[in-house]
Amino acid sequence: VQLVESGGGSVQAGGSLRLSCAASRYMYDNGCMGWFRQAPGKEREGVATIDTDGSTRYADSVKGRFTLSKDNAKNTLYLQMNSLKPEDSAMYYCAADLARYCGAFSGFFARASWGQGTQVTVS
Known about the structure:
Blueprint: E1 3-6, E2 9-11, E3 17-23, H1 25-30, E4 32-38, E5 45-50, E6 56-58, E7 66-71, E8 76-81, E9 90-97, H2 105-111, E10 113-114, E11 118-122
Parallel strand pairs: 2-11
Antiparallel strand pairs: 1-3, 3-8, 4-5, 4-9, 5-6, 7-8, 9-10, 9-11
């Protein structure tokens, strides 16, 4: 499974960033996908997931600020992050699983394949 993230960077609080995750065609068409993040000294936590039917799930901490979208022509999942806060600073990882539904973050975490991560820093 190939997942390639991009789009991280440094931004001031209140700003926006868009993360991208390019996946293999097969995974993109047949699997659920999502994003996790991990700050220094903390466990990796679920941010958002999207099932094969387009259903989405967001962590409470990002609801109303982050939005998932997909570009079928590019096999790419996006995470639009608005109103960023310093506590959003972390390494963000794209994840995917060959299942129709991601389910709870904990289960998805255990099954997922991972990208290499992209750093987001909010100051």
